[in-house]
TrEMBL record:
Entries under Gene3D superfamilies matching the protein: 1.20.1050.10, Glutaredoxin (3.40.30.10)
Domain of life (superkingdom): Eukaryota
Annotated keywords: Transferase
Any one Gene Ontology BP term: glutathione metabolic process
A molecular-function term among this protein's GO annotations: glutathione transferase activity
GST C-terminal domain span: 84-207
Protein name according to UniProt: Glutathione S-transferase
Domain GST N-terminal span(s) in chain numbering: 4-81
Database matches in InterPro entries: Glutathione-S-Trfase_C-like, Glutathione-S-Trfase_C_sf, Glutathione_S-Trfase, Glutathione_S-Trfase_N, GST_C, GST_superfamily, Thioredoxin-like_sf
Organism: Achlya hypogyna (Oomycete)
Length: 207
């Protein structure tokens, strides 16, 4: 079956587009990976559906919102079980939980009240994340992937979230913060060892 013409537009960073990029790349679905500078985004912003990135252009139609983009991409590649509503729900639950974690991190790191920033980061690391991350760990199986032996969108999202949390790039968040979550760690390692994920990372070492 021929795939639609696809173009992902975002900045030259993983961010909110990486889940869709990887979902397509892992499934060997061709797409244009358009990466804008801040200046280019500013010029294009007025024409974007929600005045923000990322967008996914499908056969010329510009669509937006990162999670719907990722689910669509995953559906094309068999990584999202649209025909199994309960399995799809389980995947959506993981995506939402990881988004909650990211939102909490962004709220602390990018607060406009710089005087409160150290206090917010301390609360994030000592209280909020220790409450949120065990909930994700508790939802994970002991199988290779989230739905058993077959890679799904949840696995890619869990891998990206784990990698982000352990990157050392976030102020005040130690790389070891997620070491205490063995199921999450093992699942992320399985995704990292996937040949297509290895190929993607080799092409984008700065990520």
């Amino acid at each position: 079956m021929a795939h639609p013409s696809l173009k992902i537009t975002y900045f030259d960073m993983p961010g909110r587009a990486e889940l869709t990029r990887l979902a397509l790349f892992v499934s060997d679905i061709p797409f244009e990976d358009e990466r804008l500078t801040g200046e280019q985004f500013g010029a294009r912003k007025p024409s974007l559906p929600f005045k923000q990135l990322p967008t996914l252009t499908v056969n010329g139609e510009v669509l937006a919102q990162s999670h719907p983009m990722a689910r669509y991409a995953a559906s094309l590649g068999g990584l999202y079980p649209a025909a199994d509503p309960l399995a799809a729900y389980r995947i959506d639950e993981i995506l939402a939980a990881n988004q909650d974690v990211l939102n909490a991190m962004i709220a602390a790191m990018f607060t406009r009240d710089l005087d409160k920033k150290p206090e917010l980061i301390k609360e994030l690391v000592e209280t909020k994340l220790p409450q949120m991350l065990p909930c994700i760990e508790a939802r994970l199986p002991t199988t290779k992937y989230f739905l058993g032996d077959k890679l799904s969108l949840a696995d890619i999202d869990l891998y990206l979230s784990y990698t982000n949390l352990s990157s050392g790039k976030w102020e005040g968040i130690p790389k070891t913060l997620v070491d205490g979550y063995p199921r999450w760690k093992a699942l992320s390692a399985s995704v990292a060892a996937h040949p297509r994920v290895e190929a993607w990372n080799a092409k984008h070492p700065a990520h």
